[in-house]
Write a structure and sequence with these properties.
about 600 residues, alpha/beta, 7-stranded antiparallel β-sheet, about 35% helix, binds 6-O-phosphono-alpha-D-glucopyranose
């Protein structure tokens, strides 16, 4: 995790660094820091906690200079305190780092044996010490960095700044993304193009193993073999509205409310002109040649995949295996020909998902991805990347990205079902017409906000909460529980309703809240039986259902949330709304930091 940035500019660097870090705070907010060169002299400021603390510090203790580097931290090695905050410095060298140096203990022991003293508990400090030692031994900056990089194991994006060298940054990438921005007689470095968006839209992405020497007018890149590499300069379009809450108190609420709009746009982006077919980008996917699918993701995106399994198997009769990326990548699963491997990721940079993609490359017939960030590593390394059109998502707890992921996965499943002969032209057109109507239903679901708020206030006092669902509502129960624990810190678990009697029912005692997600479909009566079993044991039930469901089973519940009636396929997308609102209002009632919950980061770029 962590966000890094570098500036070789013609104006004061500190405000530009802070502005760029603001756009990278989604990567971590344990501490922030910058270092600049003022007429060749290196100096730094660091502050624990959010970026605002660094901004405040800079008011009292400004840093001058037109060259600098900056960092926002998600702590891996060493407590989140000022000492461990980046940039790290040794003599005249400063560095910012995103990633983990896995062999840092060995390197540290080696340096200690030479009498080198450490100021921090971080893995990063070994890197800057190695560079400094190499320079002391007579190497120039580039040679010293190259010699150091050759010794590092693990994942990293690094940017170095050198005292006395006002026109030099050295950047390197292995495992963690890094983008170089081209200005007019200025150059920038950032963890992503979004960080650099106010500065430039001309971006060069470093590839795996690249090392770049950056000056204000030149960019020299060598690849992992030390060979000079020509990397394309791309014009990148980034949504620059990312720091605007649009009048809402939290980004999360803004993003929840955006869902009808972005889902409408997402559906339209995939429909043929007559609205009767799904058009996938590029060469699309020939689903008649796909024998099975493997879907891999982390967190909320994993739950989107679990939902999609129901759709692909039921509609397209296509067997689907779903896996958590961190398990998949080390299990060495056989990926045989005939497999389409699909990776779902909002950021497109999640380290485990990217590693799982790389494991599958060359084994699966096709590498597909469903991503929000079109220029991300996962998108660029896929044969076909399907955008979800959610727009920039800032709230650490994913909301609109989840429902847009579901929307794209459902469109794909419908396309597959049609291509494989399991859905007629008319049936496909009917499903697509229903999907076009979904934004209207989502708006009605959002109208329930006040009722959800009332239920959430009661739930905010609970210690444990259970979420229950059956069929495609089961993954949604998992997602509802994840949302609640992420932002309200209430312990929550999602279960398949049918599993209740195999253990979780032991947790039910008087007043334990149980959230039941049950549209009035073919599985409704089964789920309601499970609901009655927990009510009989004193649970307080919040039932999310539709009018028909409410009529049949609403009476015994603490709260009844009546959603619009929609075709069963659309229910997981619709029912995500009250689940998100419930987590949001519970967090607000508890007074937690909704957009930046403790210990979490939006983009998990380390294992
Ligand atoms: C983190 C985020 C989650 C997200 C997960 C996967 O845990 O907090 O919201 O679902 O990473 O991220 P990705 O960018 O790959 O979807």
């Amino acid at each position: 995790m962590c966000g890094i940035v570098g500036v070789l500019g013609n104006h004061e660097a500190a405000p530009l660094l802070v502005e760029a870090l603001k756009r990278l705070e989604y990567r971590g907010y344990d501490s922030a820091g910058i270092a600049t060169l003022n007429h060749g002299t290196l100096d730094r400021r660091r502050a624990v906690g959010k970026l605002v603390n660094l901004s405040d510090l800079l008011v009292h203790e400004p840093l001058a200079g037109k060259a600098g580097i900056g960092h926002t931290r998600w702590a891996t090695h060493g407590a989140p305190n000022t000492t461990n905050a980046h940039p790290h410095r040794a003599g005249g060298v400063a560095v910012v780092h995103n990633g983990i140096i896995e062999n840092y203990r060995d390197l540290r022991a080696e340096l200690s044996a030479k009498g080198v003293e450490f100021a921090t508990e971080t893995d990063t400090e070994t890197v800057v010490l190695l560079v400094e030692q190499a320079m002391q031994a007579g190497m120039n900056a580039v040679q010293a960095v190259d010699a150091t990089l050759a010794r590092l194991e693990g994942a990293f994006a690094l940017v170095f700044l050198f005292e006395g060298q006002d026109d030099l940054l050295i950047a390197a990438r292995k495992g963690s993304p890094l983008a170089i921005g081209h200005g007019d007689g200025e150059m920038f470095v950032g963890s992503d193009a979004i960080a650099l968006s106010p500065l430039t839209d001309r971006i060069t992405y470093l590839e795996e193993g690249d090392r770049a020497v950056v000056t204000r007018t030149t960019l020299d890149i060598v690849d992992a073999n030390g060979t000079r590499a020509n990397r394309e300069v791309r014009q990148v379009h980034v949504d620059s509205a990312r720091v605007d809450k649009g009048g809402y108190k939290h980004f999360m609420m803004k993003e929840i409310m955006q869902q009808p709009t972005v889902i409408g746009e997402c559906v339209n982006a995939y429909l043929s002109e007559d609205g009767r077919d799904v058009v996938l980008p590029g060469a699309g996917v020939d689903f008649t040649r796909v024998e099975r699918m493997t879907m891999v993701a982390c967190g909320t995106a994993f739950y989107a995949c679990l939902t999609a399994k129901y759709w692909f198997e039921q509609l397209a009769r296509l067997p689907v295996e779903v896996d958590i990326a961190s398990e998949f990548r080390y299990r060495e699963p056989p990926v045989s020909p005939g497999t389409a491997a699909l990776f779902v990721s909002q950021s497109g940079e999640t380290a485990d998902t990217l590693a799982a993609l790389r494991y599958s490359t060359g084994k699966a017939d096709r590498i597909l991805s469903v991503v929000n960030v079109a220029e991300s590593s996962i998108a660029r390394e896929s044969d076909l990347a399907l955008p979800i059109h959610a727009g920039v998502e800032i709230g650490v707890a994913s909301t609109k990205a989840f429902t847009c992921q579901l929307t794209v996965l459902l469109l794909m499943a419908l396309k597959a079902a049609h291509a494989r002969g399991h859905l007629s032209d008319d049936a496909l057109a009917d499903h697509l017409s229903a999907l076009r109507g979904l934004p209207g239903h989502l708006n009605h679901a959002l109208d329930l906000a006040r009722d959800v708020d009332a239920a959430a206030r009661k739930i905010s006092e609970a210690r444990d909460v259970l979420f229950l669902g059956r069929g495609a509502m089961y993954p949604l129960a998992l997602e509802g529980a994840l949302k609640l624990k992420e932002i309200s810190y209430i312990h929550a678990e999602g279960y398949a309703s049918g599993e209740l009697k195999h253990g979780p029912i032991a947790l039910i005692e008087r007043d334990v809240p149980v959230i039941v997600m049950a549209p009035h479909d073919g599985l409704f009566d089964k789920t309601v039986s499970n609901m009655q079993e927990v009510i009989a044991r004193g649970a307080q039930v919040v039932l999310m259902t539709d009018a028909a469901g409410a009529k049949r089973a609403g009476e015994d519940c603490m709260t009844l949330l009546t959603l619009p009636e929609v075709p069963a396929l659309l229910a997981p997308i619709l029912y995500a709304i009250p689940a998100q609102l419930l987590a949001y209002y519970a967090a607000v009632a508890k007074g937690t930091d909704v957009d930046q919950p403790r210990n979490l980061a939006k983009s998990v770029t380390v294992e």
